[in-house]
Amino acid sequence: MAQLGLIAGAGELPRLAAQHAWRQGQRLPAVALSPPIAEALAPYCAPVLQYHPGELGKILQALRRCGVQQVVMAGTVPKAPLWQAPRLDLRALRVLRRARAYRDMTLWQALSAEFAREGLEVVEQTRLLGHLLAPEGVLTPRHPTRREWEDIRYGFAQAKRLASLDIGQTVVVYRGTVLAVEAVEGTDAAIARGCRYGRRGTVVVKVARQHQDMRFDVPAVGPDTLRTLAAGHGSVLAVEAGKVFMLHREELLATARGPAHRPGGGGCGPDAARRGGVMAAASSLLVVAGDASGDQHGAELSRALQARLPHVHLYGIGGAAMRAAGVETLFDTAALNVVGLVEAGRKLLPGLRMARGLVREAQRRRTPVAVLIDAPGFNLPLACRLRRAGVRVVYYVSPQVWAWRRRRVHTLARCVDLMLTLFPFEVPFYRAAGVHAVCVGHPLLDRIASLPPPEAARVQLGLGPARPTVALLPGSRDHEVRRLLPPLRAAFCHLAAHLPEVQGVLPLAPTLNRQALSSLLASLPAAVKVVEGQSLLALRAAHYAMVASGTATLEAALLQVPMVVVYRLHPLTALLARLLVRVPYISLVNLILGQPVVPELLQRRVKPRTLAALALRFLTQPAEAARLRAALAAVRPALGEPGAAQRAAAHVQAFLTSPAAAATLNQGPTR
Q1: Residue range 326-373, pLDDT digits in tens
Q2: Are 378 and 336 in contact (CB under 8 A)?
Q3: Alpha carbons 207 and 328: distance in angstroms, whole number
Q4: Apex CA 556: angle with CA 554 and CA 562, to 5°?
Q5: Phi, psi (5° rounding) for residue 654?
Q6: How far does Cα 501 stand from its chain's mean position?
Q7: Given the DSSP bridges, would you call strands 177-181 and 170-174 parallel, antiparallel or unpaired?
Q8: In a designed cystine with 434, which of 184, 324, 413, 531 is the match (CB 3.0 to 4.6 A)?
Q9: Which ranges constitute the DSSP H helices of 501-593?
Q10: pTM greater than 0.85 (yes/no)
Q11: Spatial separation of the C-alpha atoms in residues 168 and 185, rounded to whole Å
Q12: pLDDT tens digits for range 303-334
């Protein structure tokens, strides 16, 4: 076994590391960077050598003389001396020159490279201090209040962003407002500064960086951290499970609970109720959405999960909706937002890199469960990678393998633990193939319930309340819009020539690159109003819709808006689709109803004059529009009951390995 050595900075960690090794029968050679540390290590280490932090050459020589091959670095080495009154030898100066900046990670990486040149491997601090990592679960009697959990979630997301900038890893939050962020002064000073502006109920959140190098500078909290919080009348201290050291855990718990719980402590008076706070160590859940509708589904599911499991941190791939719901998005949905074999091939290599990154992140965070939403081209291979990595997979919004490439159902049976479908007819298909499937219903039923009446929707969008209105929905992907918007624009112009009072509305999906589509949008007639998102509101306002095949067709059907369904693919993709597709219709509406209720125009049949003629027919013949609305009314009963996101969240909750996925140190009565 390689000889292990210890380099000891300031604080408690070096003594605790040396003490742990001593209890395991090892007296490690140690380099202490200050006299007090050398004295603290003397009972446990041999020899104990003392050097100034800038004497890097002497430190390396001393370690080699002791036969050290692997090194654990523990304790704080303050950066301020690097630019205040340096006493650095040539080796230390070389490290600073190579680091180019005095940020923590750049300094540590440069130092690690210098050690490697001497044949010394720097190993993770958890080699000696793994027992100090914060566990999952509520650690004190009082749980956070609902408002405190909201601040914990918000603070966790902000602290992660702060940590990614390599500034600090702690934020102080009160009622959704960041009062202080940690910089070079350290955690306790940031807490004291933030608590000056907060009141009782202030939350402190401490996390690790996204790619925390556990060899260096592992974040830590201890009793003094909690005392600082208590002195400022704060209530909650939340840390990331498995990534933050808890020093002197028993004393920390006793401090949180107040004097009555300490050996020889007094009664539980007002001072005890004011002390301490909460220690929440969050578990993690991976959520991956591959398109605009998946981003919306993911946001609703995330909010439902946070209501059930407020201590669980959500991260993965998503867009603006998921970020607004508190999900930490490592990659944006727009990077995956394609349909078609040829189109998807252009994003194959970036997709592979993202998939590998997600699996590594899931392993690093010890994530027990992943929720994959639709996007089978990316999510099916990802599901297999995750299962091999030991992550259980829940698939929400089942891929339409019953429509084409049915052999993929066998991949689902191998790699997916639970399939949550939106449509009842999908369940027998999946179960027959050995996939554990449950229908949770469609989230659209919840979204349409809060929409205003059509006239009010038109006013809300800035449209004429009495004018005939046509909604143009050319898709949520750039390549869809480039293929479909020109014929839809031309069709609207033909329609306006016969019906001058007509107005249009085009809701732009949040996944679209508006700048890349600026020339197309600029060529739209003045009577067409472009709005950001709000596809449901645009459909509510519409008397008729021209809709790209996808979720929007179902939205229009639920709102009983007469429509035509259009789609254009790359010619090679269209040829392959004709060979592989096993269903008679492309729109979800016709598939659910089992008959061609709404017209479908594909490829070369997407012609402006044909589209305009269909629109004119339904806008000028009320009986035809009423007939189609009556047929579309049959769609809603086929989708089950509202509450899909809540039902899906209940199934995901059951798959999490720990019933209490957050570690919490609380003290005092629940307010």
Answers
A1: 898 888 887 765 444 444 445 567 778 889 999 998 888 778 899 999
A2: yes
A3: 13
A4: 125
A5: -65, -20
A6: 45
A7: antiparallel
A8: 413
A9: 518-522, 535-541, 551-558, 571-580, 588-593
A10: no
A11: 9
A12: 999 888 777 889 999 988 999 898 988 888 87
